[in-house]
Amino acid sequence: MTDQQPDDFDSTKVDISASENTSTTEEVQQQEPTDPANDPLFVREGDEHGSSTKIWADRDLLSIGTVPGPDRIVGRDEEIRSVAGEIRHLVHESQPNHVVIYGETGTGKSLVSRHVSDRLIDTATARNVPAANVYVECKKNNTETRVARTIARALSEASGSGIEIPRIGLGSAEYYDYAYDIIDEYYDGLIVILDEIDMVDNAEGLLHELSRAREAGHTDAYIGIIAISNDIDFGQKLNARVQSSMRTTDFVFEPYQSDQIEQILEYRRDAFQEDVLQDGVITETADRSADEHGDARKAVDVLRIAGDIADDTDADVVRTDHVDKAVKRAEVNRVKETIESTSPQSKLVLYTLGRLTDSNNRRFRTSGIYAQYETTCGDVGADPLSYDRVSQILSTLSLMGISESHQVGGGHKQGVYLEHQLIKDKDVVMKAVVESDERLSELHNGSYEI
Predict the structure, then answer these.
(1) Does residue 256 have a known ligand-binding role?
(2) Sorted alphabetically, which SMART domains does this protein's record hold (predicted)?
(3) Alpha carbon distance 34, 206 (integer Å)
(4) Which of 116, 117, 170, 175 gives 148 a disulfide partner, CB atoms 3.0 to 4.6 angstroms apart?
């Protein structure tokens, strides 16, 4: 009886299915595809055999992490030659100069650093000078210990040493020891790229350690540092001891111009299927990016999002109206990143300021915001903070560049008070904060439409 039970069960399923109408059967088939490789939730009709979408040919070309080939790097020839001139000594088994590169985000600092260091290592290796380079994202690895661990683990993997570097439980000194042991066994030279070095706690200790490693006898290899910072005053903040050991050459990267951004985007046109980009899409993206920020990284991101919007809506081409939507979506993503680390109560305060901004008034007194904030707390079932704490949160939001605060004289016998206003687009802020807080998302039935 046990052996026949599955057959009986299957026949029961068939009987039930037979009693359902055809549309229900088709719905079940759509919800439970027989071949997971062709699940219609993820694979559109016509894509079953691995063909690309109508929009995309190679979407990765618009990925922020993709380092393009030398023929796709625009407007940075002089910077490439200058940085190469400072670190080229490693090819000749000599100490490379340390470099600090300044500039706003999206001006090619990371791109040039990685491109030049990759070519340096290729040249050194071809000349039988064993060398390596390590890229460290300091915003993610924001302590000296994390940076040292990242360097050690990257060197272990690149060298094939087989040494297992513990992820936790060690201090920076132990991770440095691992790194130096690997360097001495496998390499004569190393270039370390420290992207957003100003984000590292005890950046001075990190730079002092790496810049003096050979002098202090920790390794026989030559170590060169390329430090990247958005803070133009970073080098001046370093103590005299670090400035002495580093003796850096500094470069400042200027924002890209509209024609340069347009060329950068043109070099990534083959991310799309042929003839998919409507006339004016790349120019519109470049012009808006140059006017707003001169950030090539953001421009590439906007073009990718525009392509995704066209793809998601099953459009045949990418149009300029897709760019309009992409600009807002990209801004929403950036605001979400900014407020990601803030407290749930900070999101409620920001949401409150956004709701108030629906009115004709642009500036609001702290007292008016607090009264509406209490209503917001009631809407989501949260306990309100004190008036002073909300005032502090408003000051923090101002420091984050989402809003701004103005001190206003109240007139005779009215004293001085603060007024606050959003400096980001209200709809962008509202969508970002609603999507970042589950309580607010539920309040808006899952989303805030813009």
Answers:
(1) yes
(2) AAA, Cdc6_C
(3) 55
(4) 175
Question: Is 413 marked within a binding site?
Answer: no
Kindly state which CATH superfamily the domain 76-253 is placed in. Answer: P-loop containing nucleotide triphosphate hydrolases (3.40.50.300)
Topology at the third CATH level for domain 59-64+257-337: Helicase, Ruva Protein; domain 3 (1.10.8)
What are φ and ψ of residue 190, in 5° steps?
-145, 135
> What is the pLDDT tens value at each position of the chain, 450 positions in all?
444 444 333 433 333 333 344 444 444 445 555 677 667 666 665 555 544 589 999 999 998 767 777 778 899 999 999 999 999 999 999 999 999 999 998 999 999 999 999 999 999 999 999 999 999 999 999 999 999 999 999 999 999 999 999 999 999 999 999 999 999 999 999 999 999 999 999 999 999 999 999 999 999 999 999 999 999 989 888 889 898 888 889 999 999 999 999 999 999 999 999 999 999 999 999 999 988 888 998 999 999 999 999 999 999 999 999 999 999 999 999 999 999 889 999 999 999 999 999 756 689 999 999 999 999 999 999 999 999 999 999 999 999 999 999 988 766 666 788 999 999 999 999 999 999 999 999 999 888 887
Tokens 């990143």 correspond to 337
Strands 222-229 and 99-103: parallel
Contacts of 17 (CB under 8 A, 6+ apart): 25, 28
399 annotated to bind ligand: no
Q: Is 107 annotated as a binding residue?
A: yes
Intrachain domains 59-64+257-337 and 76-253 with the same fold: no
| Distance between CA atoms of residues 87 and 117, nearest Å | 8
- What ranges do the domains of the chain cover? 1-51, 59-64+257-337, 76-253, 340-443
Residue 68, both tokens: 């393009």
Q: Report the predicted TM-score, pTM, of the whole model to 2 decimal places.
A: 0.76
- Tokens in use for 248? 């850096």
Q: Is 387 annotated as a binding-site member?
A: no
Q: Is 186 annotated as a binding residue?
A: no
Chain-centroid distance, C-alpha 356: 30
275 backbone φψ class: left, alpha, beta (φ>0; ψ -120 to 50): left
Strands across the sheet containing 222-229: 131-137, 189-195, 222-229, 99-103, 249-253
User: From start to end of 217-323, where are the E strands?
Assistant: 222-229, 249-253
